[in-house]
Amino acid sequence: MRAPSLRPGAMLIASTLAASSLVTLAASPALAVTDPPAAPAALTGVVINEIESKDGDPGDWVELKNTSTVPVDASGLVLSDSKGTPSYTIPSGTIIAADGYLVLDEAAFGFGLGGEDLVRLHDTDGTTVVDEHAWTEHSPTTLGRCPDGTGPFATTASPTKGAANDCATPGATADLVVNEVESNGDDTDWVELTTTGTGPVDVSGFTFRDDDDARTPYTLPAGSVVEPGAFFVIDQVSGSNPVGFDFGLGNADSVRLYDTTGTLVADHSWTVHSLVSYGRCPDGTGDMTTTTVSTKGAPNDCSSPVRVNEVSTSGDWVELTSIGASAVPLDGYTLTATDGTGTTGTATVSAGTSLAPAGFLALDLPLASAGTLQLRSSDGTVVDEHTWTADPGASYGRCPDGTGDITTTLAATRGTANTCEGVLTPQPWPGGPDEVPLDAVDTFSGDLSGLDYEPSGSAAPGTLWAVQNGDGLLYKIVAGGDGGWAPTTAAGWSAGKTLRYPDGGGAVDAEGVTVAADSSGGGVYVSTERNNDQSSVSRPSVLRYDVTGDATTLVATDEWNLAADFPGLGANAGLEGITWVPDTFLTAQGFVDQRTGSAYAPASYPGHGDGLFVVGVEGTAGVYAYALLDDGSFVRVAAMETPFDLVADVQFDADLDALWVACDEACSGRTALFEIDDAGAFTATTVYEAPASADTGLANEGFAIADAATCVDGSRATFYADDNDTDGYSLRTGTFPCAESPTEPGEPGEPGEPGEPTPGEPGQPVPGEPAPGEPAPGTPGTPGSPAPATTPVDTTLLTDATRGSIAAPTTAVPGQAVTITVDPRYAGQTVYVWLHSEPRLLGSPVVAADGTVRVTIPADVPVGLHRLVVLDSTGAIIGWQEIEIVAAAGAPGRVGGGSAASGPLASTGLDGRGAVLAAMVLVLAGATVLAARRPARRDRV
């Protein structure tokens, strides 16, 4: 409702002032000559109260208000806009009554107000600023203080020239709703608003809170408008977004939006994090549910998460995957393939089949060299589709899996992650399958974060350093006789030691820890996000502590505050991990200083010690190398992008000459190895999935790895710190293979005695062990017994259960050399490559470090469909796939696309491929590095 032009009881001052368009309004009767003299304006509460910059009557205008309880003499005050000139001086004798208003019209002050402008009120000296307000776009009504006279500027509900501002919520706040919430902290938390009404809702000046009234709320800036059918995002502050709320959204939390009067206008609460985001389906009106894909600032996605992931026209199969956060029942889902003449094939998923998150399911059906494929859910809705115009050669696939565009892949990878140019495909963890608890129940109370392993210098276990972010504690953890690890009881370490800043105060939000040169004798270095006593202020610092004494409180001897390098970084988005890298390694590897563009020269940074400190920053998901100088200054030497949405820890591994970068449950527990490339930069070379049996929902914020001197049975220990203290355990351990010492090979064709096969299904190596049946080395030059792999495998074992697990071209010509990729865990081992129908041994190559072998297709192999089979040295099947041998250019061969001739294939012994579903392969493998959604996490503290 439009406010009246005058407040009740208000009236014009008795006389018309010098300018006919200058009006003074009062909240009380006109002043009489017996009233006390007015106070000078600069000594009282005169403020700019309302501004009309567009469509005013008769033009632009500015309203001043006297917020004091006595009259004010406004004579001589000067009004200007952003240009400064011309300006307008208020005429002599202009009095503003107590709680009264003075309106200055454009006709009097002589200049217009723009869409991006400001109004400034000066004292009588023309210089001292009494009040001012700036804006970046015209208001649809006016800009006014809400509450009237005292509050911040906001868009008013209607113009109230010369009267109290109309601070009713503009637009229909009843139509304003929380439309989507992401709280899992994988990058930033955020909330999305929309309106179900037909008009815009201006939320300028509204305040946003979580469930904690003790926190300072976030006030939405001027110009914040929710348009009908649009989506307005309230974002968390971060390194790339300096404007936003500075608190996290917790595992059980609420979001609340209040208008300028303090009235709650929109809210939503939850008890656990959504695995993706919570969103209304349909937008604006539906119930809040877990979405399929987070859609920040866009319509919510509540569709089926199942996607066509890979299409092989030469192999006549289609692979599905799921981008969802939970298993999807596929009862009634169908695939239909067509070409220009009609349907070429249909496949229906069997009842009871479900697809796990990031899992794969391959279905056989005939495909043409050009055609269209549609995936439909049980109700007939088209879930996904793909059209192609030519045979891809390898296959068509999404890069990254599930979420990327469909493009030509490097190789057909039925049932496993796609291989694409420029995309790192996560590899299975090469160590043991488990992460087992290492501490006794309730040893820690939660919030355990960064880890570092200090070697003992021998085969004996070293020391684990760990930090706890909540109370700012440093732990010294040692191995016990029972195989468990616990804080040492010596020198006051039993309950951890409290960390303080160099001034002796503060509560250090400790997130990462490391020692330099593998020795705590030179100090322990801790990376931080903030001082928890000032939790809304970012303080991304590296602190050094002397740990040689018995005191239970440690005061930092040095601090390097990196805040200047990360302007706008959120207080809860700072330095998560830290490690130290020796100069000797960097110079030997040709590391390039990005600051100079030249080879890294340690002497260029006097006082930095003997190495660089590498930190992982949560808010940027980046890794940075610094020279920390002894005077407290620092120099950034390099920055590295990571394949993750969040960096939880970093760890230098001298035994691998590589840098580990760890993500936590935000990336399903993946880790990456970075090595220095030919250009002298740390580059991600391998991404590993979490160990096969590990809980990928663990909040593993800390990662460390033991040195090679501790290797037992070919493995060394890995360590994980779970911030959530899941089931009462904060420390867990796993294994990673030790590098094997090179041995002299025997004469070609003279393998040593084979070892005993490792138990397990064919083609399924036991994680953490050498590939099944790795033979013991024979005496060089001494013939051993023929390995089982030198005889062909029984073809009845070439089933869908053993299919996959290798990647090779799907077509080849006689005489062509082909590259086959197997699991990199077989690196350095001999494998046996067979070609069926009539089994022919193509070779027994040694697997390269990247998991590849190369063999040549015999020149006399008949054209047709064959099978490539790869065996380990025991004869166990690593994997197999179909390969079509086609005629060389100019030779007769198969014509057309992926459809094979009907009937049995005599050259292979395989049945012809028809419309019947031949097999379903469900492999619980990870999505590629840039997967769109991540699992739940808690509110970081």
Keywords:
941 residues; mainly beta; seven-stranded antiparallel β-sheet; six-stranded mixed β-sheet; 2 helices; 67 strands; 1% helix; 36% strand; globular; disordered N terminus; disordered C terminus
- The dominant shape is globular
Q: Please report the number of helical segments.
A: 2
For the biggest β-sheet, the strand order reads 1-2-10-5-4-13-14
Distance between the termini: 45 Å
Helix and strand content put the structural class at mainly beta
Helical residue percent band:
under 10%
What's the average pLDDT?
A: 83
Parts with pLDDT < 50 across at least 5 consecutive residues: 1-36, 741-787, 890-941
Radius of gyration: 35 Å
Total strand count, please? 67
Strand percentage lies at: 35-45%
Describe the main β-sheet briefly: 7 strands, antiparallel
Task: Please describe what this structure looks like.
The protein is mostly beta strands and 941 residues long. Helix content is 1%, strand content 36%. It has a seven-stranded antiparallel β-sheet with strand order 1-2-10-5-4-13-14. Strands 38, 39, 40, 41, 42 and 46 form a six-stranded mixed β-sheet that branches. The chain has a five-stranded antiparallel β-sheet with strand order 21-16-15-24-25, with no helix packed on it. A hairpin with a 4-residue loop joins strand 39 (463-468) and strand 40 (473-479). The longest helix is centred in the middle third of the chain and has 6 residues, at 583-588. The chain is globular. Mean pLDDT is 83; it is low at 1-36, 741-787 and 890-941.
